[in-house]
Design a protein that fits this description.
InterPro entries: Acyl_CoA_acyltransferase, GNAT_dom. Pfam families: Acetyltransf_1. α1 packs antiparallel against α3 and α4 crosses α6. β4, α4 and β5 form a beta-alpha-beta unit. A seven-stranded mixed beta sheet has the order 1-2-3-4-5-7-6, with helices on both faces. With about 230 residues, it is α+β, with helices and mostly antiparallel strands. The longest helix has about 30 residues. The chain is built from six helices and seven strands, in the order βαααβββαβαββα.
Amino acid sequence: MNPTDIFPINFNEHSGSNKPAVYVKELSEKDRHRILKHFLALEESDRLLRFGTYLPDPMIEKYVNGLDFSRDKVFGVLSRNFRLVGVGHLAFAPRSEKDEATDKDTVAEFGVSVTKSARGKGVGAKLFERGAIHCRNADVDTLYMHCLSSNQTMIHIAKKAGMEIQREYGEADAYLKLLPADAVSVLKEAVQEQVAAIDYSIKANTRAAVKWLRHLPGMGNHPEKK
């Protein structure tokens, strides 16, 4: 199989000559507090686009506290400052009897949010790609996405992915049929996670080094000698 058949979209490592690479890492329980900070930092309009309705802080906290990392998959993109600028939630659920798009036992739904400062850099598209390739390797052949019809960014990603989109009452439902897993798709996901893990470690070590330097005399904020 041609490597370009791994996924129906041709996502490049660089979306443009001046745009940095986007690394998507699988998140875990230890990242829950960063996920919460990401969602709480979203403006009211962004919360509306992400969840389909405005969620106040207590509801955001309830949503994040309810994330089941053993069942679903959560992916993130970290900035150079070690902050989550993009989060993708891949939720798995049993196929309903009315679902005619697949005969598999499980389907998946994807939701994504990107901070304003990171938009236009391919973050949302890379998160979607990672969610889709994980579905393939998990033997899930149908990926759903639900959003407001006004969410042009997600509609653009859906169209670019070749998703079938149905609009009704100001909302849009889209689904994507995925190819079966193969050696190339499994290798691609493993390599993506390994590269993202290395990037994560570098940023974490850099952050720790900066904090350490700040405590050295003459290198940052520290109590003045009397």
